[in-house]
Amino acid sequence: MSGNSSTFDNVLGETFGSFDHLVRLRVSYNNKPFSNGCDFRPSSVVNRPRVEVGGDDLRVFYTLVMIDLDAPNPSNPTLKEYLHWLVTDIPATTDASFGHELIKYESPHPTTGIHRIVFALLRQFKRNSVSKPELRENFNTRTFAQVNNLSSPVAAAYFNCQREAGSGGRKFSI
């Protein structure tokens, strides 16, 4: 994933703290990969994306989380982090379709402001060990990782999403 490295680090650091990008993560909507910080409208992200995971050892498994950092609106993100998708037990060198979908994909549909939608890949230390969270709202990736014995992120990507009639893009550092 390419994009403005400083903004990328700021967006992801806000949620995960510092972490090393150890595994390749490629996310594409409608067979088109995106670069970090790009803008999407809800109509472009209706269908579940293809998420390809790197690595070199098929005995290693990952958990993928997709969250909205700005729900319900960027000025007052009271539902932060909102969980849009959760897939566990993804073998290295495959894609999310080889994993176990614990939380079904819910496409982002912001009604106010520009929302930062983040994909994070966490390494599992044991297969079939991740519990399904009770709620999508107020999900906390760090706490979830600790409770389920997951690593901090080994890869991440994000895009901005705003309502269909919205204008402009996020042009400032977070």
UniProtKB/TrEMBL annotation:
Species per Swiss-Prot/TrEMBL record: Elleanthus aurantiacus
Q: What is this protein called?
A: Flowering locus T 1A
- Tell me which domain of life the UniProt entry assigns to the organism this sequence originates from: Eukaryota
Cited InterPro entries: PEBP, PEBP-like_sf, PEBP_euk
